[in-house]
Amino acid sequence: MEAHLDAMNKQPFAVGVSVIVPAMNEAENLPHVFATLPDWIDEVVLVDGNSTDDTVAVARRLRPDLRVVVQTRRGKGNALIEGFRAARGDIIVMIDADGSTDGREIRSFVSALVNGADFAKGSRYAPGGGSDDLSPIRSLGNRFLTGLTNLLYGTRYTDLCYGYNAFWARHLEVLDLDCDGFEIETLMNVRAAQAGLVIREVPSHERCRIHGESNLHALRDGWRVFRTIWRERLHGAAVPAPAPEVVGVALAK
């Protein structure tokens, strides 16, 4: 199965693809992450959160054509926003630097976009997806927040709080992203729905972080996600959206 998907990943698309990788002190993980990236992507933009290890040096050694953006503020949301602004591709893909997201799945995300979607949303709960890392409390919180979003916005998402997503760069203006933290994924999902974008869920399998400790704090960041959901509902009209179509397949373990 994996050999077949690796072969498929060598097929190029007739669009430019930028991969954004926010990273802070991820030198040990980047060799694993970059090894999964397809050879047909057009650029990798590493957003460095002022790392104190060899993150940038390791990344440049692994990929000499790497573009590096030094983050001016703090937080994953800010890092992604700065990376999005620097991207030159038609399609932007966001992945994590800790090894939890598999670059070989990028083909499924890009396929969803070139076949009509505006926003391709990764889901660990869609058929073919999964996670090796979700704790019971994080899973419960994610399901609650996903359900709340679906109730308030008329969406039918299966996985709200997941950072593996892709979209056409031309939609950056309508997304109008303006947050600093982990709530960035929620903000994107909500504003994509409010804007009436065509959203398709792509099954994805999340791995455990390879080295180091996560900066995610379930209660603190869950509260920030909740506030984002509620704030956006108060300031914008809910637009009923059809259920996002599930496309593609996740890689086998």
UniProtKB/TrEMBL annotation:
Alphabetized SUPFAM superfamilies for the sequence: Nucleotide-diphospho-sugar transferases
Domain of life: Bacteria
One Pfam short name: Glycos_transf_2
Domain Glycosyltransferase 2-like: 18-161
Database matches in InterPro entries: Glyco_trans_2-like (IPR001173), Glycosyltransferase_2 (IPR050256), Nucleotide-diphossugar_trans (IPR029044)
UniProt family annotation: Belongs to the glycosyltransferase 2 family.
Protein name: Glycosyltransferase 2-like domain-containing protein
Organism: Nonomuraea antimicrobica
